[in-house]
Amino acid sequence: MRCEADRRAFSAGFCDTPAMRPCAAMLVASACLLAACGGGTAGTPAAAGLTAREYLDAREAVEKFLSAERTREAVIVARKLVEKAPEGSEFAARANEVASRALFTHARLPTSGLAPDEREALLREAALCAIRSIEPGGRDAAAIGFAALLAAGAGMHADAVRLFDEALAIEPENPAFLMHATLAALRAGGGVEGHGGIDRARAYVARRRAADPASAWNDGLDAEIALAAKDPTTAVRLADRAMAAERGMLEFRLIAARALRADGRAADAARMLSALEDAERAKPAIAEQFALALAESGDAPGAARAWSECLRANPADAFVRAECAIAHHRAGDSARAAAEMELLRAMPAAGAHLSRAEAALREETALREETTAPR
C-alpha cells in the first residue's frame, strides 16, 4: 500500500509511556484536523478542501494511534480525514486508504470490545473505503487485492470477485490472488455477472495450477469446489492429498473434516482432529469442527469437552463461550450451561452470540419436554 513505508517508520519511531499517553504531536495533528472539519460537532459542515499539511498531519496521527493500539481514536481521525477529502478531491483516494486500515485494525483488535454487529459494520466500512482508495485506471495490484480481501472478509463476495479480476488483469499469475478469488467465487455463488460460482472457481484453480503446479493449495481449493458441488467423496480424496503434501497445514485438516462430515463419516473426522496437539484443537475453527464431528457421532459429552478446552484458551471469545454453553446443555449439564450463560451475559461483546445461545437453549429445553411428556 502507498503508506506502508510511512507506517513502518512511524511504528518503529513511536515510543509511548506505560500508560499509553499519545505524544503531543499526535494530539496536535488530530486536534487540527478536527478543528478544520468543524470540531466534530454533529451537523457542522466541514471546511472545503484539504491541504497537503493537514493530510500528512492527520495520517501521522492515525498511524501513531494505531501503533499505540488506540484504535478508536484512529478511527475518529480517519473518518474526519475522509470527510475533509470528499470524493473527487485531490486526497480522496489516500484518505480512504488511511481510513480502511484504521477501520480494519479497530475491527480486528481483540481488545476493542466490539459487539459482533459493530465488528461487521466496521469491516464493511473498511472494505468500502479500500474500494474508494483505488484510483480510476490504477495499476497497483497490491492495493486492489487488499480491497478485494477486505470485501471478501465483509461478505461482499461479488465485489471481491470483481476486484480480484481487476488485480489479476495486472498480475494474471499471482497465486494468492487466484486462491482468494476461488474462495470468493464459491461464496458469491451464481450471482457474479451471470456466471456460476463453481465454474468460475474451477477456472481460477486451473490458472493457479498452471502458475504454481507444486502447491498443495491447488488440491485444497479443488476440495472446496467439490464440497460446493455436493461431492464430498471427491472432496475427501483431494483434501487427503493436500494434507499428505503439507502435513502441518491446519487449513487442509479443516477442509478434510468438513468433507468427512458431509460424507457421513463424522467419527473419522473426530479421530483425525483428536490427533492434533491440544493448542491446535483449542483454535476456535478447529474446535468447532471437532465438536460438530463428536456430536454427529453421538458423543455429546465429548463435544462439550471440546468446547471447554477451547474456552480455556479463549476466555474472552463470546462465540466460544456461547458454543460451550450450548454444548453443555445438550450434554445434559444444565448447571454448567447456566454458569456459562451468566458469564456470557456479562461480556460486553456478547451481542448476537448471546441471543443465539438463548434461542438454542430454549429450543433444546422445549424438545426435551416434548420428548419426556406423558402420552
Structural notes for this entry:
- With 375 residues, this protein is mainly α.
- Among the domains are: 113 residues, no CATH class; 103 residues, Tetratricopeptide repeat domain (Serine Threonine Protein Phosphatase 5, Tetratricopeptide repeat, Alpha Horseshoe).
- Helix content is 72%, strand content 0%.
- The chain contains 20 helices and no strands.
- Helix 10 runs antiparallel to helix 11.
- It is globular.
- The relative contact order is 0.05.
- The N terminus is likely disordered.
What's the gist of this structure?
Helix content is 72%, strand content 0%. It has 375 residues and is mainly alpha-helical.
Quote the average pLDDT.
86
Reading the helices and strands in chain order gives HHHHHHHHHHHHHHHHHHHH
| Radius of gyration, in angstroms, nearest whole number | 24 Å
Largest sheet: none
List the helices and strands and how they pair.
Blueprint: H1 4-13, H2 24-36, H3 52-67, H4 71-84, H5 92-108, H6 116-132, H7 141-153, H8 157-170, H9 175-188, H10 197-211, H11 217-228, H12 232-245, H13 250-262, H14 266-274, H15 278-281, H16 284-296, H17 300-313, H18 318-330, H19 334-345, H20 351-372
Can you give keywords for this protein?
single chain; 375 residues; mainly alpha; Serine Threonine Protein Phosphatase 5, Tetratricopeptide repeat; 72% helix; disordered N terminus
